Amino acid sequence: MDINRLVRKNILELKPYTSARDIYEGDGILLDANENSFGSTFTEIEGLDLNRYPDPHQNDLRKIVSDYLSIRRESLFFGVGSDEIIDLLIRIFCEPGRDNVIIPEPTYGMYKVASDINNVESISVLLTDQFQIDFNEIEKVYNSNSKIIFLCSPNNPTANLLNKKDVARLCERYNSIIVVDEAYIDFSLKGTLIDELKKYNNLVILRTFSKAWGLAGIRLGYCIADFDLIKILFKVKAPYNISTLTRYVLSKAFLNSKTKDEYIQSIITERDRLKHQLETLKGIENVSDSDANFLLIKCKSPKEVQKKLMDKGIIVRDRSSQPKLEGCLRISVGSKEENDLLWDAIKNIL
Ligand SMILES: Cc1ncc(COP(=O)(O)O)c(C=O)c1O
Fold this sequence. Notes:
The protein has two domains: 3-254, Type I PLP-dependent aspartate aminotransferase-like (Major domain) (Aspartate Aminotransferase, domain 2); 258-349, Alpha-Beta Complex (Aspartate Aminotransferase, domain 1), CATH 3.90.1150.10. The protein has a seven-stranded mixed β-sheet with strand order 1-7-6-5-4-2-3, with helices on both faces. A four-stranded antiparallel β-sheet has the order 8-9-11-10, with helices on one face. The protein contains eleven helices and eleven strands. The chain has helices at 9-12, 59-69, 81-93, 110-117, 135-141, 164-173, 227-236, 244-254, 257-279, 302-311, 336-349; strands spanning 76-79, 100-105, 121-126, 146-152, 177-181, 203-208, 221-224, 284-287, 294-299, 317-318, 328-332. By secondary structure, the chain is α/β, with parallel strands linked by helices. The longest helix has 23 residues, at 257-279. Helix content is 35%, strand content 16%. The protein binds pyridoxal-5'-phosphate (PLP). Pyridoxal-5'-phosphate binds next to helix 3.
């Protein structure tokens, strides 16, 4: 597929912002960017050079993550959280007031919000009762202005993986960008669609450091996609979108990637323990299987349960107004102590 044919005309023609450092790399006397050559007012961490703008080409981040995942650097782009990338993709492919995106629901709310912000129509279709892709539903609404289909696997808030074959079929069937948000993939034992990238240049995989890596505070996400698509993301992004501090933290976190693996193990153990406990409560009709770091439970009065938990200082998410999620609350798997407190509270409520 020729990706460029899907890109908005103004983006194809865009002359991106350039800086003198696009044509110069090395340690010269940097008098090109109106920085403060005397130094920075923040001196707690040595060697960070916070008085200088960070590398716009994201070379350091690309090296760390491409080595870790054994993929090509040119297939990586980093954003201020994966939320920034969702917004950039809509801006690249969707002409406001004309194009649309398709969102199989229930799913993560930002795909719709980002579309609304950009004045791009979002067409909501339903997932099946097993929360898988419903081809008939998509076929009914798909048209030549449908530029992106947003999928999430494992899906938030239903916690299940999408069938790989279904995603592949969508990539084949439609001349559109198929985004698969893998924010929770680290909690799943199977499932990533990375291998499919070799076959489909319209597939974009979104990832984030906000979940398994425990780095929600640094705001860093990335996508893996076809080189041409990545080049367009670089053209459109703000020149220095990822801060030096974020890069510093990430480089240190990768020295500690074993801790991330231990977190994942602990979260999966706690997830399974909590699920078994909750399943014993009569007041809970269903506890979802989960490939993520949260559980979806179904009960009679979710709003009341949420309120009573909140009165005890425990915050969970009411998802009961989303399609197909009547009675549902989403509960993040906490630490062992937090889960024990949740269990004590909820068994008294229900
Ligand atoms: C499915 C999904 N994608 C993306 C995000 C946001 O990720 P980030 O923190 O990288 O913006 C979330 C946050 O909860 C999420 O649930």
